[in-house]
Each structure stands twice: as structure tokens, then as C-alpha cells.
Amino acid sequence: MNVANTARLLGVSLHGQAICTALLMILCALLALHLATALRHANKTKAMQEADTGEQDSCPPQPNMEALPEAPAIETAYSDASRIVYGSYDRSFRARLLLADGTLKARYAALANQLLGYRNVRCRISWAYASFTCGRRTVAKIAIKGKTLCLHLPLDPAAYVNTKYNAIDVSAVKKYAAVPTRLKVRSPRSFNYAQALIARTADGMALLHGRDGGLTAADFPFTPFSTLLARGLIRLRTKGGAPLEEGYTLIWAGFERREHVPAVEAKAVAEERIALPEGAMPPPPQDNLHKHSRRTGRKYIVNLDALSAVFSAGERADLTSMRERRLLPAKATAVKVLARGILNKPLTVIADDYSADAIKMILLAGGEALFPAISES
């Protein structure tokens, strides 16, 4: 049906056919624009869903994960379990503050200045928190949990839990019994609430205003992890207090070992929990302490779910063994390991490069991520 017929059916005069034609063209253009927008949105959604499943492989096909046998328990993966020590790093309040970002440092300085601005209020920093006291009365305690500043005040938790303050009752924790109301300070709004509750606490304790504390974020300069460890502000704790004697292997530091580590879980692991921030690789074994070199040439990609499919717990996954198990072509001279799927066993992985999430997955599963020695091919 042409435009003239359409116009006649609609009761439009010949004089209005030009207007009708223009309207139809505009409608067609709007429809085409709508379809193009919907297509772009669908492509974007698909890309985001693929990204959520972990990093994708770009070369050799991977084994079928559905046919895999059940992985052995991690506890039975080592031939001499009595020579393995489990440990983690215990960060003091000072260490957490020095490693924190500028925003957290600025908020801590502002809250500390407000508290120290009251007469006779003093600050004492212990291993776990900063305590603000006036005589024998505790005015506040400030701790750092992960990347969140936590203010504890001697207020009745019942008046602030399930309110706009979103406070938490920590009265059951012995060290916070005197300051049972916890407020997490992680946004401008919660920071304003924290200042308001400090003022309310001071009024209730009849504290008088004095001189400002004068602290700034610059008073807490970033300090490398290794320096804090050497200064004793970070301690290495071992499970059960087992000593790190010669011949023992520390296979877990900073993470709780998991039997199944999904890529999405590795992405969510907080950066501050990485055991070795200045070089996330664990120290190599004694026979691999000599100079190592990353091989040149094209780096072929292998995903961790593929390694988990063809290697047993505790095995060494290097370039040669990956080629033997057909994860890499025979001509491959370098390999990069990416995070995808699930890693359900500890492996000693030796590769030329890793993604950050791949390192986290390997460490979470109780394995090691190493670079090849210069003599390896």
C-alpha cells in the first residue's frame, strides 16, 4: 500500500499527503533508533555477564569440567603434613592506619581532633585500636576493620540500632563493653553522624571544650608493608603457635584456605588481605632461589579451571607439564595464567605472568604462584 492510499484510508486530503509522508518517515527513524539502542544495551549486558564469570581464555580449548572427579581434601594433599605451618599476618592499628587511603586517614584525624578538643581527653594507641579517655572514663575507641573506620561510643546501643545511624551493638565483645555502640564511618553521611554522636557523648559526660588536636592525614604517611613488618607493627601469627623452624613450609599467609575458590570470590578478596603486598608472589622454594627470568615471546593463556581439571592436588604446573597435558601447543615458550571458574586444589604454578585474581585464587587454595628459573625452558 503506497502513501497516497494510506492517506485516503485515514481520511487525509491530497493536500495533507506531504505532511503524512513526513510523519511516517519520522516514525520509521524513531523505530530504527530504538532498535539500535536495544541492540547496544543487549551487547553491553552480555559483555558484563561474561566478565562476571572471570577472565576468558583466548587459546586452546579447555577440558570439560562436568566430567571431573571429586577433588581430594586439601588436608590430604601433602605427603608430609607435619612439616606444614599455617600462618597469617596480624596488623596493628598503627599499621592499618599507615596503610590506609587518604580519605580514611583524613576522617580519623578529624574525629580524633574533635575528641582531643575536649579538656583532659587523652589518646592512647594499643595494638587493636585508639582509645580516648578522660581520667578513668572511656570517651571513645576507634578501630579499623578492613578498610572501614569504626567508632565506638559509650552510648546505649538500643537507641541507635535500626535507626538512621545504622549502629551495631558490640556489648558482647569484652574489649568494647564500655563503648558498646559501634558506628561504621565509610561515607560523608556516616562521618557527619559520627561527629554528631561524639558531641552527644561529650554533652552526656559534661566534657568542656578545649584546644583542637591539630592532626592531619599527613601525620600518617604511607609506610611499606615490609617496613611495618620489620618494626613489629605487623606480626606473623601461626596456627596453633607452631614455630617456623628450618625445614617447615609456610603455605598459607593472610588467607583462609578454601577447598573451592571461584574467580568471583577471588575478585572480592580485600586488597589489604594480600599476604605480600610488595610482591604478591610467595617466596620460591630453596631449589629456585637463583635468578629467575620471564621468558620472551608470545604468552599463551591458560585458565585456572583448566589447571584444576588436569593436575592433582600438590602437583607442579609449569610450561613443560602444561604442554604434556595439551593445555598449550608444543611451540609455546611462555604462559600467562588467568582466573576463571573454580580452583579446587592447591597447586604449585610456575608461569611467566599472572593476573592479580589468578594469584589470589592460587593463594586462597593453599598453593604457590612462582616465576620460572632462568634455566627452565
Layout of secondary structure:
Elements: H1 3-9, H2 17-52, E1 84-91, H3 93-99, H4 102-116, E2 121-125, E3 130-134, E4 137-145, E5 148-153, E6 168-169, E7 181-185, H5 188-204, H6 225-230, E8 234-238, E9 249-253, E10 261-262, H7 263-268, E11 300-303, H8 304-310, E12 316-317, H9 319-324, E13 335-338, E14 342-343, E15 348-350, E16 353-354, H10 356-364, E17 368-370
Question: In words, what does this structure look like?
Answer:
With 377 residues, the protein is α/β, with parallel strands linked by helices. The protein has three domains: 3-52; 65-89 and 240-370, Ribosomal Protein L15, Chain: K, domain 2; 93-219, Aspartate Aminotransferase, domain 1, CATH 3.90.1150. Helix content is 31%, strand content 19%. The protein has helices spanning 3-9, 17-52, 93-99, 102-116, 188-204, 225-230, 263-268, 304-310, 319-324, 356-364, and strands at residues 84-91, 121-125, 130-134, 137-145, 148-153, 168-169, 181-185, 234-238, 249-253, 261-262, 300-303, 316-317, 335-338, 342-343, 348-350, 353-354, 368-370. The strands form five sheets. Strands 2-3-4-5-7-6 form a six-stranded antiparallel β-sheet. The chain has a three-stranded mixed β-sheet with strand order 8-1-9. Helix 4 runs parallel beside helix 5 (188-204). 30% of the residues are buried.
Overall number of structural domains? 3
In angstroms, what is the radius of gyration?
30 Å
How many helices?
Answer: 10
Question: Judging by the overall fold, what is the CATH architecture of the largest domain?
Answer: Ribosomal Protein L15, Chain: K, domain 2
Strand adjacency order, main sheet: 2-3-4-5-7-6
Task: Report the β-strand fraction as a percent range.
Answer: 15-25%
The number of strands is 17
Give the class from helix and strand content and strand pairing: alpha/beta
Describe the sheet with the most strands: 6 strands, antiparallel
Overall mean pLDDT: 74
Give the N-to-C terminal Cα separation.
Answer: 73 Å
